[in-house]
Amino acid sequence: MHDIAQFVVQHGYAILFTAVFARQIGLPVPANLFVVAAGAIAASGKLALVPVVILAVIACVLADSAWYEAGRLRGSKVLHFIHRLTRDPDAHDRRAKLIFAKYGPPILVLAKFVPGLDLVAPPLAGTSRTSRLRFLTFETLGASLWSVAYSGLGYIFSNDLNRAAAYAGRAGWLVGALAVMGFVVYAMYRLLQRYRFKYEPCVSNTSLSLPVADVPQVVAISKTLQGFDNAD
Q1: What letters, b where the CB count within 10 A reaches 16 and e where it falls short, cover 4-43?
Q2: Chain segment 73-116, per-residue pLDDT in tens
Q3: Hey, where are the domains in the chain?
Q4: How far apart are CA 38 and CA 44, in angstroms?
Q5: How far apart are alpha carbons 172 and 49 in whole angstroms?
Q6: Would you say 39 and 154 are in contact if contact means Cβ atoms under 8 Å apart?
Q7: Can you tell me the distance from the alpha carbon of 79 to that of 58, in angstroms, rounded to the nearest whole number?
Q8: In the 3-class helix/strand/coil scheme, how is the chain assigned residue by residue?
Q9: What is the dihedral of CA 89, 94, 99, 100, to 10 degrees?
């Protein structure tokens, strides 16, 4: 981890952008550790945190947009190309398609925290003919969440990079849990609002209707992503 930090110190923002872009293209580069290291270096004042986050987001979006366009042009052939080195490419293709068909483009928000799914989600969005605007919306949200999470880890634990790296390995589980907690809190808040105004005739209950069914779905997404991670 300290070797990566020294590398980032020597080459600055350029190596950060290159590492993240390479990882999203599919090369075996530990880009999350580069982002953690950049966050730690930002804490020392040698880099600035905001440019670190912005560059990581741009690198993610550019690389994933290339996979998205490839998916639109070549369809399932792109997915099979990605899985060509796995033991059972067809099984991996089917599993990825089932996950995307069930949850759709919103899965892009958490996909970057799940090794394997992060690479196949963008071409699947292209194959499913998701609009470019919708893809870019969820892609940018996911890239921002990923970049802030890892650079924040480095910034907070700048004096203990090994500890930051250990937490980085569990970031996917943590973000999934936080997402579930956030939706549950939101659901409870809306339910309380609905109960509060239930007996007030001037307020339409229809306008306060809560898609409570979304909460179990989010829980299911988190569990599915964990299962995807473990299967790979």
Answers
A1: bbeebbeeebebbbbbbbbbbeeeebebbbbbbbbbbbbb
A2: 988 888 888 888 677 778 888 888 888 888 889 989 888 888 77
A3: 2-169
A4: 10
A5: 21
A6: yes
A7: 23
A8: CHHHHHHHHHHHHHHHHHHHHHHHHCCCCCHHHHHHHHHHHHHCCCCCHHHHHHHHHHHHHHHHHHHHHHHHHHCHHHHHHHCCCCCCHHHHHHHHHHHHHHHCHHHHHHHCCCCCHHHHHHHHHHHCCCCHHHHHHHHHHHHHHHHHHHHHHHHHCCCCHHHHHHHHHCHHHHHHHHHHHHHHHHHHHHHHHHHHCCCCCCCCCHHHCCCCCHHHHHHHHHHHHHHHHHHC
A9: 90
Residue pair 89/147 in contact (Cβ under 8 Å)? The answer is no
Mind listing the pLDDT tens digit for each residue in 157-208? 888 878 877 777 776 666 666 666 665 676 687 778 777 766 555 444 444 4
Distance from chain centroid for Cα 182: 16
Only one residue has tokens 């105004």, namely 197
pLDDT digits (tens, 9 = 90+) for 39-80: 999 999 999 999 999 999 999 999 999 999 999 998 888 888
String of b and e for 123-135 (b: at least 16 CB within 10 Å)?
Answer: bbbbbbebeeeeb
With CA atoms as reference, report the closest residue to 227 among 172, 166, 156, 159. Answer: 172
Q: In whole angstroms, give the CA distance from residue 90 to residue 216.
A: 29
